Amino acid sequence: MDNRAIVYYYRYIIVPLILKHLKKADCLLDLGCAGGVLLTLLQERGFTNLHGIDAAQVLLDRVPDKSIPTVCDNYLNVKRHYRQNQFDFATVFNTLHHLESKEEFYLFFENLHHILKPGAIVMVKELYNGLFYKIYNAIIWSKLANKLFPSVFAGRNFVQTNEVDMHARFFKDFVGNIDDIMEAKGKFKVIKKYYPLAFERLIVMKAR
Q1: pTM value?
Q2: How many whole angstroms separate alpha carbon 208 and alpha carbon 159?
Q3: Local confidence band at 5 (pLDDT 50, 70, 90 cut-offs)
Q4: Which domains are assigned to the chain?
Q5: How far apart are CA 72 and CA 65, in angstroms?
Q6: Which residue from 144, 136, 64 is spatially nearest to 94, judged by alpha carbons?
C-alpha cells in the first residue's frame, strides 16, 4: 500500500463518505486503483465484489490481495474489459488529470456510463483549487518538510515533477467545464458534493 498518510486519509475521511452511498451487495469498480488502498480498506469492511483498473502495472503489482480482479489499461478502454450494466458503483479518485484533452474527459464519462447499471453511483475525487494545490506542491518540494516528515513525503517528489503539466491542463480543461463534462449530456446527475480537503472535491453522481 502507499504511504501511511494516504492510508490514514482514506481510512478515516474518504471511506466513511463512501459508506454513506455504498451497499454491501454492490459491485464496485475503482478506476485508477493504483496499489489498491481503497480496495483493501473496503475489503476490510466486508465488501467482496470489488474490481480495479489502472494504467500502470507496477502499481497494480502492489495490490495486497491478488484475488481482487484488476485490469491494466487506459481508463478510456473500460468497454473492452467490462460488460454493459455490470457495476452498481464506481470510484474515480485522482485519476482524471491523467487524461490528455477536454475530448478525453467527455469520452471517459460516456464510456463509464456504458458499464454502469441505471441508478449506479459514481464518486469522483479530484483537485479543484489551483492555489491550494500550488501550496501543497510547494510543501512537497520543501527539503524541510521531507526531513521532518519523511513517512509522509518520501517518494512523492518524482510524482509531482511528472504531474505538474497534467494538473495545469486539468485545471484549464476540466475544472472550468466540470458540470458539463461530468453530467455527460444528461447521462449522470450530480447529487452530492463533499470537500474533504481544502484543494480536493468529492462529487457524487447517479447514472441515469
Answers
A1: 0.82
A2: 36
A3: confident
A4: 4-129+177-207 (3.40.50.150)
A5: 16
A6: 136
* Tens digits of residue pLDDT in 23-51: 999 999 999 999 999 999 999 999 999 99
* 3-class SS letters over the chain: CCCHHHHHHHHHHHHHHHCCCCCCCCCEEEECCCCCHHHHHHHHCCCCCEEEEECCHHHHCCCCCCCCCEEECCHHHHHHHCCCCCEEEEEEECCHHHCCCHHHHHHHHHHHHHCEEEEEEEEEEEECCHHHHHHHHHHHHCHHHHHHCHHHHCCCHHHHHHHHHHHHHHHHHCHHHHHHHHHCCCCEEEEEEEEEECCEEEEEEEEC
Which residue type occupies 75?
Answer: Y
